[in-house]
Amino acid sequence: MAKRIITDKLQVFIITWLGQLISLIGSGLTGFALGLWVYQQTGSVTQFALVSLFTTSPGIILSPITGALVDRWERRATMLLCNTVAGLTTLVLVLLLFMNQLQVWQIYTGMSVISVCTAFQFPAYTATITLLVPKKHLGRASGMTNIGEASARLFAPALAGVMVLTIGVLGVLLIDFASYLFAVVTLLIVQFPKPKKTTASNQGKSSLLKEAVYGWTYIIKHPGLLGLLLFFAGSNFGLGIASVLITPMLLAFTSPAILGNVMSIAGSGMLVGSIIMSVWGGPKPRVYGVFGFGLLQAVCLLLVGLHPSIPLITAAAFGVFFCVPFMDGCNQTIWQTKVPPDVQGRVFAVRLMIAWSSFPLAYLLAGPLADYVFEPLLASGGLLASSVGTIIGVGTGRGIGLLFIVLGILNFWVAIFSYLYQPLRMIEKENIAAIYQLQE
Fold this sequence. Notes:
CATH architecture: Up-down Bundle
Structural class: mainly alpha
Number of strands: 0
Number of helices: 17
Order of helices and strands: HHHHHHHHHHHHHHHHH
CATH topology: Growth Hormone, Chain: A
Shape: globular
Number of domains: 1
Helix content: over 70%
Largest sheet: none
């Protein structure tokens, strides 16, 4: 019997979403397991942070070119290629570990290849959602897509912690490889609609380099979009440092098993937020959702570092993750309604590059800031031990706690100053030069 190709837009979205959901959970298992492996092998926060650096940097650097190519290529084929290459890369890591040849630099290399795949897949996937989901439901669709990342954060740490003890890192990598296979199968049974051409597409169409630059040109012509990008770049800097340092901060006074439990409960905040966002669709105007939840997230980030208490850190981290779906969902909907579908690949790729550009810097600075600045300040007899230390504690991990407090304060002021920038505050009332019609 011939394979049935599914073309109904809603069915295509749900099937594609399910494939990406499973793949994200598998990747979450691998990311947690490999990060823990590197930290236990080296004992270095800096080398641990470099895993995150190599997971993001290559894709960010190449994203303008990948975005232009996504607009040229068939998006389903692009996603198929990305999942296949990422799966094969994971299989190589499996073989190296099986032969007891896996080294830290090989993990860096493998994560770099997967990062490039993500740079193609992210704009292809997000641009396709605009073609599959009616405009009025884009907020809900963004909530659903966040469920994938939330599930990875919820289930992956606890499952990975148990799996590393039972089936080992090798077994975790094999599960990740199987998740990529599942994603490939879901893409093979669906068909994506082609985007209609608009005047924006004709204006940006020329050489590959000019098409890559067009994404940036489009953004700077709309100050509200540029302001939105800069807000997330600033906010992501704090979150990037926090995501790296929460593991060594917790391991300073607790076990890997409790670490996994804390991260799972914290990740459930993102799942809860994603479900609410998918049902509710988010606040209106959307930009107020970005600001409001940005402020709440900053306060929660501060609370994570306030005291070495598992209940406090767990609750505060839950709050940090709970805010993510609302911020990302509102942000995503604004972009999907302000950028013509046929140029979303190149525009979204530049958007990814700018918004995520602060992550590599955060990953580079996280280790040195913790090891050489903040930890010595709150070590026994440290410069701040007799002042700040009397409030938040002294000893291993408390310097990282102080850094969390500083990051929370910085992110709070990023949200305040962003709100005061009128083009960003009024972005949803901004007249977009390239007029286009989304499906109603």
